[in-house]
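Design review, sub-item: ligand-bound model
Attendees: FS, YL, KQ
YL presented the inputs for the adenosine-5'-diphosphate complex:
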Amino acid sequence: MDERVRFIRKLTPALRIPPGRTVELGRDFDPASTDGSVSRSDASGLLDQGVELLTEYQDRLYAQASSGVLVVLQGPDASGKDSTIKHVMRGVNPQGVDVRSFGEPSAEELSHDYLWRCHRVVPQRGRIGVFNRSYYEEVLVVRIHPELLVPERLPELPKDESIWARRYREINDWERYLVENGIRVVKVFLNLSRREQAKRFLKRIDDPRKHWKFSAADLRDRRRWDDYQRVYSDMLSHTSTEWAPWHVVPADHKWFARLATAAVLAQTLVEIDPRYPEVEPATRKQMAKARSELVAEVGRSKAAAKG
Ligand code: ADP
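KQ shared the predicted structure:
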């Protein structure tokens, strides 16, 4: 087996949350973990290999054009969502990838159901789509700030039903629909520690080139750290499914987060195993004819140039 694939197969299972498992982030996952088997000095070579593998498989995915891949990236502020995308996707052909970021919904988006803005940009077959934040914000930031539900103008809920349980069901159903229709869903949660977030915020405040990354809303959310950990845990417990499992990637060490995310995505592509399409015998015949014509033409022009 390809050495690169062997590495990926070894790294990814420990990151995946088995369906039905009740997760408590703080208890179950260490944001500073580096798997024990990879050292920082090996990481850059391994990431290069992972990126190379992604590039090869993406080319095949694009050529085959029968499956799409949707990568959903979630995580607290400063968990490295942007830079992970930058490093993991750096080798792939930009023609085959779309990256989308989801911030506060616009008035138009609010006048639709909450999955609408995401569904309209689900990748086509043959392409990889990356969601930098996603519909999962609807069970995260909206749960922490339930006043955000007001402009969504939802119908009244039966008294015995929780909006969050309902949304988990809707999201699971929607993802299942995507998978059944050839769009694989790869979910990565970048698990950052509170301490590391403080360090990264301080860097943003102290470096004028990073000021643009800082927003007061980040601090507002940081004050609700424990509440966020609870809603992340609940989301992971209820939306890790057979068809679209969550991966919890330790994010305190950026080098490891990039490597692990690349591995998770590569693992999916290896599973899809896209193949270059084989051409019909008639087309092959046409190609053979075209080849001899071209070879003859090149030969003639070489002879003309010589003499
Ligand atoms: P980032 O923090 O990812 O770099 P932004 O500065 O654009 O990007 O922040 C996006 C903000 O939009 C986040 O605070 C996020 O919680 C918020 N957001 C995303 N989706 C929703 C949603 N559906 N409803 C309300 N707020 C949302």
